[in-house]
Design goal:
Length: 728
């Protein structure tokens, strides 16, 4: 560990352990979820035991425990507890949510086993929607930094009514904090191993009585966890990210409110993640990059048009420049010089430059209390939606005769509506429908040209029943969809040139509530998802025996698939001094009917038809869990311990390589000193190797004459750090 970091951690630990600080005000564990006096009174009103968690992604502000859907909410205090600077660092807390890296960050997300794992030259139709303050960033999870977030909402299951084509598996909604009525802010800095440094600041307050502002900025840097032995560098897989957020909220008059959001993210990260020796020590002479510069703006207006309904409009634009590159041979010229493999080695570099622009317009009418239908029993919502996205690609590849270029433009037009009918005092019926037309136009330099328009529909039908004032059970049937498309590689046979639209029916039931005099909150969901024409990432692999293997990626359709399981989350205030929390996801995801005729086992000239029916889907662990406890050791001092784990899972349907099963231990000690929060923390304390991306039957080591073997990219090892945050 760096000497300066050791010294800082030791000094902070000594101050904490001797209680040498005097605080003007105190904070106990229950500050996370409980309103308490500094005397830590045990006389709580049950209804005040937990702060209400409000979900905004359903277009109405609704309590989490009153939504008939499987939703997880990660608040700002959880982000602080995890010392999380990116979405990937909290996803393991959420049941049945996984991610794939293959870059500097976990850019590709799977919900209930559904989602992409990578992207190269092919155009991508995302399965998981990502919104950042209402701005569409689906398909580029690298933008999901956590600066000044109020909460992250993760909706599992198809969101076919309200979000459409990019939310077959679910939706992730990142919502930042709003401007405050009085001037306030904070400043935070942290240091950790691997030369990790983070500095951020937030200021918020009023400009006038009706206009408020909020501004936040963050710089996060790290050398990363890879040592490049050939270049004698420790930063070839580094992180260098800057994020800026700005908000203006303007109450124009009693009827009109305007919210303006600005977002800027600049990542200049390295990518040197794979080693010929399957370690964190690489030999590449041309380390790659994982760069992204995004600028986005969104305007939301709410107009109280009449006493019956509001008119809400959301207009957004996001422009992103992305560069993804890697040293394809993972080695250097001369690696075989004087060795038996002399003359075998190759050298190549692969670089992908993407420019993407996304514009959206969403206009909706939302009923007010006075505007309900059918005798004031039914609230309603109707909307129209437009999305235009243009993505251009330039691929620069060593062995290509010329650079590859492509342009992929999509337009989505949709109308949607939802009714919430109160059938009785305790029973509510939810109905929703979305009709969408999508036009996709793809062209590339290999003369692949495809223009496809398709009509899509999704929706949901749900019942919510309040058993008691504190307990709700629900049942849900929903339908989602994912548009079809074209495979871009010209070497593919016409039989796999195009792939079909995928549809999915989701059947779900669950229970939510708070019990034990309001000290226990929990939600349990059971689900079964029937997939039709499910889209599967596959690869044609050619390993000639006298050189490295080559891959031709494409999207295939499996006739049928099924994903089913259970999800549990709970928070328990066991006493004034101890709070327990946890989650558990159980998942079974299999192909039901799938024969992959293009699967190559031995000879690429003679593809072997392989029946994958009954085989597990990729990136779908059978279980994952997280449990933790926070203890209020004194009025000023809190401690937290957390364990998270995940079963092994297949990395691809093409081969049988799996990740390792793991359990990680994280800990944090926090001291409140007046307006300061001082903490020391550690993640992955037992230093487990966690596989975040991998290849199965792959030959890339000339020293072994390109014999096929599995290769893995590893996630964060054990890391210690310290953080100081000042509130003003």
């Amino acid at each position: 560990m760096n000497t300066s970091i050791k010294t800082s951690l030791l000094a902070l630990a000594l101050l904490v352990s001797h209680g040498s600080f005097a605080a003007d005000d105190t904070e106990t564990l229950a500050d996370d979820t409980v309103e308490k006096t500094t005397e830590q009174s045990t006389e709580h009103a049950p209804e005040e035991a937990f702060e209400e968690i409000v979900v905004t992604a359903d277009f109405r502000d609704v309590s989490l425990l009153n939504t008939g859907n499987s939703i997880s909410v990660i608040n700002s205090k959880t982000l602080a507890r995890r010392e999380a600077h990116h979405l990937e660092q909290v996803l393991n807390l959420v049941p049945n949510v996984n991610y794939s890296s293959g870059a500097s960050r976990g850019r590709f997300i799977q919900i209930r086993g559904i989602g992409e794992r990578s992207q190269f030259i092919e155009p991508l139709n995302p399965s998981v929607g990502i919104l950042i303050d209402g701005i569409d960033f689906s398909g580029i999870g690298g933008a999901a930094t956590t600066l000044d977030l109020q909460q992250i909402e993760i909706l599992r299951g198809p969101q076919g009514t309200l979000y459409g084509a990019n939310a077959l598996a679910g939706l992730i909604n990142l919502a930042s904090n709003d401007p405050t009525e009085s001037f306030e802010g904070n400043f935070e800095t942290s240091i950790a191993e691997y030369e990790t440094r983070t500095v951020n600041g937030v200021v918020s307050g009023p400009v006038t009585e009706n206009l408020g502002y909020r501004f936040a900025i963050q710089q996060h840097k790290s050398d990363g966890y890879t040592d490049n032995d050939f270049l004698n560098r420790h930063d070839t897989n580094n992180i260098d990210e800057q994020t800026i957020r700005g908000k203006l909220n303007w109450q124009v008059n009693d009827e009109l409110q305007v919210k303006l959001t600005g977002f800027y993210m600049d990542a200049d990260n390295g990518y040197d993640g794979f080693s010929l020796d399957n370690t964190r020590h690489t030999l590449s002479d041309q380390p790659g990059h994982d760069r992204q510069e995004s600028t986005a703006v969104g305007i939301e207006t709410t107009w109280q048009a009449t006493e019956q309904f509001d008119v809400v409009s959301v207009v957004s634009y996001a422009g992103s420049n992305l560069e993804y590159s890697y040293d394809e041979d993972w080695s250097y010229d001369g690696i075989c010089s004087g060795e038996p493999c002399d003359g075998w080695a190759y050298s190549s570099f692969d670089n992908y430059l993407r420019d993407r622009e996304t514009s959206t317009v969403d206009l909706r009418l939302v009923s007010r209390e006075e505007g309900k239908f059918f005798g004031d029993t039914t609230d309603w919502l109707f909307g129209i939606y437009y999305r235009d996205q243009d993505e251009s690609l330039l691929r620069e590849y060593t062995y290509a005769v010329s650079d590859f270029t492509s342009d992929f433009e999509t337009e989505n037009h949709a109308i949607y509506g939802q009714l919430g009918s109160q059938l009785t005092d305790n029973l509510k019926l939810i109905t929703g429908l979305r009709l969408e037309y999508r036009d996709a136009d793809y062209r590339d330099s290999n003369n692949v040209d495809n223009d496809k328009g398709e009509r899509l529909w999704g929706g949901r039908l749900g019942l919510e029943y309040n058993v008691t004032d504190n307990t709700m059970i629900y049942g849900l049937v929903s339908r989602g969809y994912k548009a079809g498309g074209v495979n871009s590689n010209p070497s593919l046979d016409n039989s796999v040139r195009k792939f079909d639209t995928e549809y999915m029916w989701n059947f779900e039931t669950g229970v939510k509530g708070d019990w034990l005099d309001g000290t226990l909150q929990a939600q349990l969901a059971l689900f079964y998802q029937k997939r039709r024409k499910m889209q599967v990432k596959q690869s044609l692999v050619e390993c000639p025996g006298e050189g490295a293997c080559t891959f031709t990626d494409f999207i295939d359709n499996a006739e049928k698939g099924a994903n089913y399981g259970a999800e549990l989350e709970f928070t328990w205030l066991a006493s004034d001094f101890a709070q327990f929390y946890g989650s558990l996801g159980l998942l079974r995801a299999t192909f039901r009917e799938y024969e992959s005729f293009t699967h190559v086992d031995v000879d690429p000239e003679d593809p072997v038809a392989k029946d994958l029916s009954g085989h597990e889907q990729a990136h779908a662990p059978s279980y994952q869990f997280a449990v933790g406890v926070e203890l209020a050791l004194t009025h000023n001092l809190t401690a937290g311990l957390e364990i998270e784990g995940k079963e092994s899972f297949y990395l691809s349907p093409r081969h049988n390589a799996k990740t390792n099963r793991y359990e990680l231990v994280n800990a944090r000690l926090n001291y409140r000193l007046a307006d300061w929060d001082l903490s020391i923390w550690g993640r992955n304390l037992t230093d487990k190797d966690v596989i975040v991306r991998g290849f199965g039957s792959f030959g890339n080591d000339p020293r072994k004459f390109y014999a096929t073997e599995p290769y893995f990219q590893y996630g964060e090892p054990r890391i210690f750090g310290a953080t100081a945050k000042y509130h003003f």
